[in-house]
Amino acid sequence: MASNSVDMDPDVARRLFEEGATLVLLGVPRGTELGIDCKSWQVGPRFRGVKMIPPGLHFLHYCSVSSINSGGEVGPKTGVFLTLKPREILLANWDPTAEDLDFSASKNEEELTRIRETLQELDPYLGPYPYEVMRKWVSLTDRISEELAKNLQPLSGRVCAFCDVIPELQLRHTKDRAEQPRNDTACQSMKEGLDRLPKMKQREGTELRFSTIPQKTYPPGATPAEITKCSMDLSYALEAVLEKNYKVEPLNLLGELQFAFVCFLLGNVYEGFEHWKQILALLCRAEEAMKKHKELYVGLITVLYHQLGEIPPDFFVDIVSQNNFLTSTLQDFFQFASGPGMDATLRKRAEKFKAHLTKKFRWDFDADLDDCAPVVVELPEGVTVD
User: Fold this and answer.
1) CATH number assigned to the domain covering 224-361
2) Which candidate, 298, 323, 300, 317, places its Cα nearest to that of 361?
3) pTM for the full predicted model
4) 39 φ, ψ to 5°?
5) Per-residue pLDDT, 17
6) Residue range 43-60: mean pLDDT, rounded
7) Fewer beta carbons below 10 Å: N end or C end of the chain?
8) pLDDT tens digits, one per residue of 305-341
């Protein structure tokens, strides 16, 4: 594990050496892609872990790699959120069968005592925490508390790039299998082919536990006029999410936004990206809530500033710009933020953020994004177009 760390202030280095946490990771195969927070490496033959880790929240992520004889293929990424205390030692052993780190040794006091006593001998085999990414990591996660991370991550404790799925029907008996569609004849249509596939579900305990975003954005019994209003201004749906999940501290929704983003950016979890989009759309299109929750929206601008600074510009061409999602969503946000009744501080921050994005990504938030949309024209009854 090679480190390209920048020169560290001697006082910082000494403090991290004395107060930093240590991850002892034994048996990790050579060539494994392993990283912590915003930096990753390929594991070398001498690697035994990471030292001088600043106390707080961290994201350990790794991909198993098959042997060179098997082609050296890289497996899907797995991530673990860890909240480390000063001078804490966590011990994990590589499980070659599961191709995963097993942290159960960290609960064995005798093992931990032995490691602590031999830490000086292990020191040459421990890579220093990449301190140069610390500022970036904190800017991406400063709203995620230990409790929030615990509540959002899967019960398994693992954030996996690929879902662990199992059939909805176990089909343990011959009778059950006989009732399923036959697969020994050619399909007559795409639908028939899809219907023959077994219905799958995510294995219990492996799901990310994000807040549920309401599909209906209006209250029960709403009139057509109320449905239209709540579809244009998503404040009702946003307040429902805050009431159910973050009633005491609404700003924790920003922590969930950061958690989803980190799962996507560093954990390669596409579900994280989709949830990030959902929360963002909910926040940016809630005009009345914007007037009520000034701190939430001032915080949102800061969170987005750091997040959008970490994504390469060509990424937007491939994914984010599909259907103009980000530009249209932020256009609504900037329009609402500059409207009547908005807090002056929020309006000023939004104007600066808009100018920053326009300069950096050359996005025009003042253009009419519907200019090129097809126009639907209602023709009088009996009139046809040849």
Assistant:
1) 1.25.40.550
2) 317
3) 0.84
4) -135, 145
5) 79
6) 96
7) C
8) 999 998 776 665 545 444 467 888 999 999 999 999 9
Distance CA 321, CA 153 (A): 28
Which CATH code fits 10-141? 2.60.34.20
- The domain spans of the chain are 10-141, 165-202, 224-361
